[in-house]
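Let us work through a complete example step by step.
Step 1: write down the sequence.
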Amino acid sequence: NTFNQSRFCLSKTSTRKYSVAPTPSARDLLPKNPSLSGFSKNSGLVGILNTRPRVQTSSNSRASFAVQQLHTTMDNKIKLYTLDKKQELETSGVECKIVHFVRHAQGTHNVSKGYRLPENHDALLTDVGVEQCRKLSEQTVHLEGIELVVTSPLTRTIQTSIHSFPKHLEDGVKFLALEEVRETVNFLCDGRRTIGEIKADFPMIDYSVLQHDHDSVWKKYEDAFGSQEEHTGYRESDDVKHMSERAIKFFAFLRSRPESEIGVVTHSCFLWTTFADSQLGNSLVAYPDDPELQAKMETWFDNCEMRSFVVAFA
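Step 2: predict the structure and record it as tokens.
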């Protein structure tokens, strides 16, 4: 006996306690007022709720080819533009997509600041976080062009994706877990459970592109640095080469997908290192003649904040 899948399908067999919208279906969460509440298709950015710190062969081969392309053309950086530039870019023959980036909503680790505590391993959303998602869903319901929602495989991002894009889930849009957009692996809150455990709780997510059931990224850094008690500093955040490779693989994945508009639910440090950190972001991403967009992207994403823009690959 499980919750109705349209009501976010959290398995009652799970031993974890989740914050779940109690009774309404996804349709019940739609706003009565059709207004975009501040979101404009001609604006580049929208911020919500300022609140800090086995593989499918065909798609995999396409992504591998795209990775090679990016590695050999990194002098031509990934370029970000405001949404109103998309038609102009397409008319000029530029390959591009609309991408809506969302940082996960408030998690237990954000409140307690206990990033190394075992109880915050693969941290959950708080009730406040679920409410943040509900408010964001009033915006995303108007994003009718979204054809795919990509989420980090960590629990808090999966919860955020389900609660923030309920209409898309109900309408059959694919929700796909992608390891490349998970949080930088530094503390226990950044580790994930096995995919088997996560899938039991969230069966509506597609996990087909994940290569390992266990958390191979966490194991890599634990083998290198030791346990949380043995090493209290950063791990992956000090491995700029790996972060660069991860970001390149992510953009290659975006480029390889047939969808033209995609939602991506991820984490603050991944967003920061990709779009703002001078060690990495400035070598991967460019903001052609748009200092305002660059200045915005060089600020920290708040919990459940969404920023929408055009990603161009040439």
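Step 3: interpret the result. The chain is about 35% helix and 10% strand.
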